[in-house]
Each structure stands twice: as C-alpha cells, then as structure tokens.
Amino acid sequence: MSTATERVWAALEALTDPEIPVVTLRELGILREVNDAPDGLEVVITPTYSGCPAMGQIEDDVRATLAELGVAARVVTRLSPPWTTDWMSDAAKAKLHAYGIAPPHTRPPADVSVMRFIKRPVADVVSCPHCGSSHTVVTSQFGSTACKALYKCLDCQEPFDYFKPY
Amino acid sequence: MSTPIDYLLHLADNAVVLGQRNAEWCGHGPILEEDLALANVSLDLIGQARLLYQRVAELQGGDATEDKLAYFRDAHEFRNYTLLELPHHGPLVGYAAADRDYATTIVRNFLYSALMVLVWDGLQNSSDAGLAAIAAKSIKEASYHLHHARDWLVRMGDGTDESHARVQAAVNHLMPYTEEFWTISPAEGAAVAAHVAVDVWALRPAWDALVNDALAEATLSRPNFHGYVTEGKVGLHSEHLGFLLAEMQSLARAHPDGRW
Ligand SMILES: [Zn+2]
User: B41 vs A142: CB contact, 8 Å cut-off?
Assistant: First the structure.
C-alpha cells in the first residue's frame, strides 16, 4: 500500500453510517477499496439496498473528507460483487447490538428449490438486544428503513430493530 | 452484441411504475407498520429503476440521463406490464373514483414479486454484466417483497369473511393481467436471443408453484382465464398510466433542468 492510499484509508476510517452512527462505512462493507490507479487515486464504494437514501450522503461525506485531506481522488460506485451483511465484522455486529439493533444473522446457504424464495430458516431466532431473551416476535418485515425489520421482545416488552440479512 | 435497450426499459419501467403506485400509500397506510413497509418497498423499486435507467443512459450515450428516461417519456413509450399501473381498487367505469383497497395492493405485489424473484435470479447470469450486477442486488430485495406480500395474502385470505372476500375479489380482478407475463414481446425475444434476458416462459411452472402454494395456504381460489391479454410492455396501456405519469413527471417537466 502506498503512503497516499494509507492516508486516505486512515481519513475515511473515521466516517460512520449516516443512519447508524456507531458503525463505520468500512465496518459495514460500504467502503470497499482505495486504489492507486495509474490515472490517480480511486475510492470504491458499494450501495447497500438499491434505493438506500443514505447513499447520496455517504458519497458526499467521502468527497468532503478527501477534499479536506487535499487529495484528488475519484469516487467510484461499484455494484458487483453485491453488498452483503455477511461482510460485517463481529466487532461491527457487537456495536450494533450495544446500540440496540439486533445484528444480522449469517445468510443461509444456497438452496435450489423454488420454495427457497419463501422459506424461513426454522432456527432463525432473533435475540432481544436489550435483555437477551430469545422470546421475540416480528412485528413488521420493514422497520424505519428497508434494511431493518421491526421486532418486539415478549419478555421485556421493548420493541427493537433487527438488521436483516442481505 | 449490443444490449437490447427496450428490454432494460421494460424492467426499469415496471419498477418505477409500481414504486410510484405503492408510494400513494405513504401517509395513508392502513396501519403505521404497513405505511412504512410500503414506503420501503417503493424505495427499493425506485432504486432498482434508477440503476436500470443509469445502465440504459450509459448504453445510449450522448446526453441521455436517468431523469430524462423517467420524466420525459410519455405513456406510449413506457414498457411496463399493465398490471402495475392499475389503481389500488377493483374495476370501475373510467370516470369513477374509489378508496384504495389494501387487498388489491397486496395481491399485485405478491403476483409481481413472485415473478421477479425468478426473473432476477435468472438475470444474475445475463450476458450484460451491468444487468447481472443489478439483478444480484434486486433478487435480495424482491425476496423480502415476496415475503411481505405473501404473509399478508395468507393473513387476509385466511382471516375474516370480509378480508377473505376482498382479497379473493382482488385475485379475481388481477390474475387475468398476469397473462401478459407469458407472451413474448419483440424486445424480450431479442434480449433472450442475445442471452441478456431469461426466457419468461420457462419460469412459468415455478411461478405457478409459488402462486398456487400461497393461494392454498390463504384458502383462496385461482380463477380461470379466457380473454384479452394486455400489452403494456409494448406500449399499449390502460387509461390509468397517463394519470400516474402526470403526477410523477409534472414537477420535473415544470422545472426541466432543476436540481434538488
Ligand atoms: Zn427483551
């Protein structure tokens, strides 16, 4: 890694998600690469959900940080490979949990039957981030944002968000 | 081999038209959770449409942009299924208005997302790398849309007499429009020949399995169909699309180069 890319990584490391400020863009897997290409530095980001309204803000934050650093780099949005919650580190998941959001489960392995599109894993129990109880129930598949489902804990009675596997 | 642009527009127009339709529920949902859910489904659909329009603009080159494609084409240039432009209620004479019916909304989302999980799944292997990348994201979103719509279909179908009757009426009303899924338009034929698209006809048994399984669980019956097959995807639309586009496009057309 060149000194220039190291400086860019260090600066971008500080950027957090506009909706969930306890995790960084790098931890979420949105910030993918900093490349020292022959025609200049390049920062690669990838969108989460296709319609995520935070992506515009994220791109602006990256550009502003680069400008502050005095580095001329272009910001490239790349779709492939598609973003997945499996890229989140355990540390990032622990931070989500501490923030009151149940972290995403690992995606189930691929299945070929057509019913895979509607099947739910039997053991997909989402634990309450407040009291740890696994006695929880889904209220809605879509919460405050597309990436989260709304759950309720039947023990402590608190509602909570579950970051859905993607 | 050039990518058939009309096919990409068909996919994009489907997503933007249903996204706009479902967004009508924003602030009017039957319960708060569903208001949020429908707004989030719309965001996904409009996001998918944007990625597809961006891909079209890239292929067209020149001064083509996603906004020009969404806001400055007229109804006859749209390539969406007629199913997706219909209002949120059953059939009425042309000048009549009615309240939005959530059963109609749910049944349509179910029928369409059951198709799109199959279409996006196949398109992940498209010879157009840009489309394959969009498909690999959209498949994940479409399967959440399918879960959501299917849950409500079962809940309302296997619910009260009132909810059952309303969701059965919506199935009877909307099912005939799904015949349009299975006719092959010239754009689809060209895209299949170029290995850009999947052959929808081959997806029909899987779609039938998803639909029949859900209808059975919801204690609903599937109507037989004999009649006119709609042709929205070749630009022959119902009277409803013009009104939908007028609402969606008027702001951009009033301020042609506006930025916000
Ligand atoms: Zn709890």
Answer: yes
Range of the domain at A41: 3-77
Tally of structural domains, chain B: 1
Dist CA B85 CA B15 (whole Å): 11
Task: Tell me how many domains chain A contains.
Answer: 2
A44, A77, A110 — which closes off a domain?
A77
Say whether B132 and A143 touch across the interface (CB within 8 A): no
High-pLDDT (> 90) share of chain A, %: 70
- Residues of B contacting chain A (CB within 8 angstroms): 33-34, 36-37, 40-48, 50-51, 114, 117-118, 129-130, 132-134, 136-138, 140-141, 143-144, 146-148, 150-151, 206, 209-210, 213-214
The CATH number that applies at residue B172 is 1.20.1260.10
CA atoms B149, B152, B158, B162: torsion sign: negative
Residue contact B47–A139, C-beta within 8 A: no
**Residue B249, domain extent:** 5-254
pLDDT value for A92 = 93
Tens-digit pLDDT profile for residues B188-219? 999 999 999 999 999 999 999 999 999 999 99
Write the CB contacts of B187 (distance below 8 Å, at least 6 apart in sequence). B4, B6, B7, B9, B10, B79, B233, B234
- The answer to whether position B47 is within a domain reads yes
Residues A16-66: tens digit of each pLDDT = 999 899 999 999 999 999 999 888 899 999 999 999 888 889 999 999 999
Q: Are B136 and B124 in contact, with CB atoms under 8 Å apart? A: yes
Question: How far, in Å, CA of B112 to CA of B45, rounded?
Answer: 12
Residues B232, B238: contact at Cβ < 8 Å?
A: yes
The ipTM is: 0.91
Distance separating alpha carbons of residues A20 and B180, to the nearest angstrom: 42
Residues in chain B predicted with pLDDT less than 70, given as ranges, are 1-3, 94
| Residue pair B91/B104 in contact by the 8 Å Cβ criterion | no
How many CA atoms, within 13 angstroms, populate the side-chain half-sphere of residue A20?
25
